[in-house]
Amino acid sequence: VTYTFMQCSVLEGKVDHSHGDCGNMIGAVGPFALEAGLVPIAPDEPRTNVKIHSLSTGSLYAADVLTEVSEDGHRRVQYDGSVSSAGLEKTAAPVVITTHGIAGCQTGKLLPTGNAEDRFEVPELAHCASTIVDFARALIILDAREVLPHFGYSSVDDGISLASLGKDAKLNDSLNRYRLQAALAMGMGDCAGKDSPKVALVAPPASNSDEA
């Protein structure tokens, strides 16, 4: 099957085509293709393989979707299961995704700038190095331990949550200015108002948590 991902704005009447591929949505493409009859369910196997071609990036994926025998004796998509994901309360059956040719799918290069490490002229983040990769999507990765102290956080354990970081206007403004410069260096042009490239702050697990 072919698949195109676009992100619709909630507040404005526009559609963003810059996102690239969405892993969550790719996980839904396989089950939908079987439910809609776009791909036949393997009648004698506990799983069906669905090949997916992304028209957004040109990447190829393969989804192994579990199936079960229904009351009428025919196979159907299995949704109940014991696999859990961080941030989700319920468990479900897994969809195993295999990727093919996703390196450089948005910029043409795994390392879009040609460097393993980059720095950009944002005063608050001038000494913070980033690694920029394009693997299924363009991503700017920074060490949270280098970034957060510039904004009053003593450590990654300092009562930090995704919600609290999302409300930190000064932090987000600086990261966005860093992102704008990185996008130009990556050859992606002016990314103002666009979803891609994304920024990730990476840190070791918090000392008060068992989760990474």
Q: Can you tell me about this structure?
A:
- With 212 residues, the protein is of the alpha+beta class.
- The chain has 4 helices and 10 strands.
- The strands form 3 sheets. Strands 1, 4, 5, 6 and 7 form a 5-stranded mixed beta sheet that branches.
- A hairpin with a 5-residue loop joins strand 5 and strand 6.
- It is globular, with a radius of gyration of 20 Å.
- The two termini are 34 Å apart.
Key traits:
4 helices; alpha+beta; 212 residues; 3-stranded mixed sheet; 10 strands; 18% helix; 5-stranded mixed sheet
Please report the number of helical segments: 4
The major β-sheet equals: 5 strands, mixed
Classify the helix fraction into a percent range.
Answer: 10-25%
How would you describe the shape?
globular
Report mean pLDDT, rounded to a whole number. 87
Note the beta-strand portion: 15-25%
Taking all Cα atoms into account, the compactness measure Rg is 20 Å
- The total beta strand count reads 10
Spans of at least 5 consecutive residues whose pLDDT stays below 50 are none
Distance between the termini: 34 Å
Content-based structural category: alpha+beta
Looking at how many chains there are and whether they match, the oligomeric state comes to single chain
Order of helices and strands: EEEHEEEEEEHHHE
